[in-house]
Write a structure and sequence with these properties.
Number of domains: 2
Strand content: under 5%
Helix content: 55-70%
Largest sheet: none
Structural class: mainly alpha
Distance between the termini: 40 Å
Number of strands: 0
Order of helices and strands: HHHHHHHHHHHHH
Number of helices: 13
Radius of gyration: 21 Å
Shape: elongated
Oligomer: single chain
């Protein structure tokens, strides 16, 4: 078997080579099958590295994130079924991402959500890869709920709690040769430009919301109001505001997925 030229592969040729190797694996056994799977892992390591980078800055070393992503990649290679008719990447992405999320959950939380939400998150991670293979795209909260036989609000609550992992400290030393901290190396932000871009992007989605829902989004994401301030304005508790924001974000995320 010829060696896989990992370093010179483009995304297009990588996809073609991956497809060919999975076809070869179908008739391979023993050592030959193991060698093909090793080639598949090496070939798709750039994908795992890219996914691990999206979880940086949450309190876990970059090297550790990459290693966890590689574990997910190995699981994806072993679990992928090419006869389903979908590309490997559509199965590998949720598998790797789920492995990273499990690592975060095992490591600990800054704010620990209820046990029911943690259990739902575990179920979601377990079924995302399967749904990706069935649908050929990211599953919507309603589809995850139907697959698990639970209420869609449980799925939305669980997805909304994914930001509770330990964040990286701004006082931590930077990766440079000087004594700067991470916080000192952060660049300035043009708030006016960001707000204008966000408004233009979200305008079609905001038009579908009720007046109260638009007010909540406006106060939280454009004015920077706290949940307590929003609750006082609309006459509900801070806890209720938190749930409303979580559901609104999930709804808008689903709308974006549908539009794509």
């Amino acid at each position: 078997m010829t060696a896989v030229p990992v370093l010179t592969e483009t995304p297009e040729s990588r996809s073609e080579t991956t497809t060919r190797l999975f076809l070869e694996r179908e008739s391979a056994e023993g050592t030959e099958r193991a060698v093909i799977e090793e080639d598949l892992v090496r070939l798709n390591m750039p994908l795992a590295r890219d996914l691990s980078r999206r979880f940086r800055g949450r309190g876990i070393a970059d090297d550790d994130l990459e290693q966890v992503a590689y574990v997910g990649l190995v699981k994806a290679v072993k679990g992928f079924k090419p006869d389903r008719g979908h590309e490997f990447v559509s199965f590998a992405v949720p598998t790797i991402r789920g492995e990273i999320r499990r690592h975060f959950r095992d490591l600990g939380w800054t704010v620990r959500p209820p046990r029911s939400i943690q259990e739902t998150q575990s179920k979601i991670s377990g079924c995302e890869s399967e749904l990706y293979q069935q649908l050929g795209r990211a599953p919507r909260p309603s589809e995850i709920a139907a697959h698990l036989g639970i209420d869609v609000e449980q799925v939305i609550d669980a997805l909304g709690a994914t930001g509770c992992f330990a964040p990286a400290s701004l006082d931590a030393p930077s990766l440079g040769d000087d004594d700067d901290t991470v916080g000192q190396r952060l660049g300035g932000v043009d708030a006016g430009f960001d707000l204008a871009e966000a408004r233009a992007t979200l305008a079609p989605l905001l038009a579908k919301l009720s007046r109260r829902e638009r007010l909540i989004v406006e106060m939280r994401f454009f004015r920077g109001c706290t949940q307590a301030e929003i609750g006082k304005e609309i006459g509900v508790s801070q806890m209720h505001v938190s749930r409303l924001i979580t559901r609104l974000v999930a709804r808008m995320r689903e709308e974006i997925t549908i539009a794509a």
